[in-house]
Amino acid sequence: MMQNITITKESDARGSFCPGPLMELIRQVRLAQVGDVIAVISSDDGSKKDIPAWIAKAKQEFLGMEEIGGATRFICRKIK
Amino acid sequence: MKQIVVLGGGTGGTLVANLLAKKLKSKEAHITLVSASNRHLYQPGWLYVPFGRQDPRTLSRPMASLLRKRVKLVIGKASQLDTESQQISLEDGQSLHYDYLVIATGSQVAPEDVPGFSEGAQHFYTEEASFKLHAALEEFRGGKIVVGVGGLPYKCPVAPLEFTFLLDEYLTHRRIRDKTEIIYTFPLNRVFSIESVAEVAQPLLEQRGVTIETFFNLEEVVPEEKLARSLEGTELNYDLLIMVPPHRGAKFLQGHPIADEQGWVKTDRSTLEVKGCSNVWALGDTTDLPISKAGSTAHFEAPVIVERLAARLRGANNDQIPEEYEGHVMCFLETGYGKASMLNFDYSHAPEVAEPSHLVHYEKMVFNKAYWYLVPTGVL
Ligand SMILES: Cc1cc2nc3c(=O)[nH]c(=O)nc-3n(C[C@H](O)[C@H](O)[C@H](O)COP(=O)(O)OP(=O)(O)OC[C@H]3O[C@@H](n4cnc5c(N)ncnc54)[C@H](O)[C@@H]3O)c2cc1C
């Protein structure tokens, strides 16, 4: 699904309970240019709910998530 | 003889320099600590200054009084770092060579990153700002206070929550709590990033009558309209706006090849080595690690760097050195009315939050006083 997407910036937030993967994603999205694709890797199960919820609330584009060896990579495009 | 330079005289830098001085024999290395200021600041105390509970004059000590005699202290601000020639230039024109370098220049607040912040918002994240906020609170007679996180990243993630609890207590004591609406904002969809902490904190905020506004990432402040606007499109009016400003790394690191645009140094999460430089390490707030920027983080990172640097200096290869940082962080969480809780976690263990108690609050108060003797010196 995600083969054709070029990631502009990826952060590894495995094991980060505080501030946590979503905070890292928000920080990266705020720094990014419109059109950039941001990825964050999380080992926290709660991210599966929290990350898509924020992306929807902030009206950014959720490109999907993929399992990578005990963790999940979340991908988001900055569209505004 | 090998030259070790430690950049930064805060919690991380002072501790690393002292531990290195203890670990290494004098003939093994010269240790120099470079710091922009001749004062060491105890920042956690700034939380209490706005409420008149801490005298800011008690929150700094001369650098020289905290360092082992063996450590050479240079007061100066690094303005350039050349990792090829292993040179650091200072603003006053001095230049220093290093064989091994430890970067511990911390973080600085960047209110200018949010339009209108400097004109419209107050905070407690510098010595001056916390004292200015003390005046603003003393003059406050009632109205709407919006308090929260005004940008990412920021240090001491629990501080805005602690501030809100202490604010409620302060206004109650001044008998103006019933004339004041407090709105607490947070960037995520709960009151704190760690779910177990949010589960303890949210009912407490509700009990104290604090309105909660989540998914609020401050985008701009419009001082003329007394309005705070979020990235998510929420607008909040305020009489007093208290927001933790976004932070950046030191100026000379912003855009440097070893750091990102904001000056966060690209650091290995286990070895704390700066990526691409095998003789440079970073600790504390200045790293780009997505973990808490806290004094306790720097405290637990310091011994790892000391062991790794000493082993390397004595000829070991990286894969022969077992010491690694495992993400250990410890934080107090002040909940007001003389109670506090404590969080302890690392990369593989989620924090468990104890019920707030008087005992933990008392421990925090004792720690705030004992810091000078225990932490920068390496006693603890
Ligand atoms: C209100 C508040 C409450 C807090 N509460 C807690 C708490 O309860 N628990 C906790 O663990 N942490 C707390 N913290 C966070 C803690 O203070 C910091 O995370 C900690 O000080 C980081 O240590 P550091 O060594 O990385 O940076 P710092 O201690 O900030 O030190 C940085 C040093 O680098 C020097 N420097 C900067 N730029 C240069 C340069 N260009 N050249 C040379 N020197 C330079 C500075 O002068 C300073 O000496 C709190 C912070 C605040 C603001």
Describe the 3D structure.
Chain A contains two helices and four strands. With 80 residues, chain A is of the alpha+beta class. Chain A has a single domain (2-77), classed as TusA-like domain (Translation Initiation Factor IF3), CATH 3.30.110. In chain B, helix 1 runs parallel beside helix 6. Chain A binds chain B through residues 11-24, 26-27, 30-31, 46, 50, 53-54, 57-59, and chain B through 152-153, 157, 187-189, 193-195, 215, 217, 231-233, 261-262, 269, 289-292, 327, 329, 331, 343, 345-348, 350-351. The structure holds flavin-adenine dinucleotide (FAD). Flavin-adenine dinucleotide is lined by residues 7-13, 34-37, 43-44, 46-47, 77-78, 104-106, 124-125, 155-156, 159, 250, 252, 284-286, 293-296, 298, 331-332 of chain B.
- What helical percentage do the residues of chain B reach? 10-25%
Largest beta sheet: strand ordering of chain B: 5-2-1-9-19
Q: How big is the Rg of chain B?
A: 21 Å
The value of Rg of chain A in angstroms is 11 Å
Oligomeric form: heterodimer
Structural class of chain A: alpha+beta
CATH superfamily of the largest domain in chain B: FAD/NAD(P)-binding domain
Largest interface: A-B, 25 and 31 residues
Q: Strand portion of chain A, in percent?
A: 25-35%
Average pLDDT confidence of chain A is 93
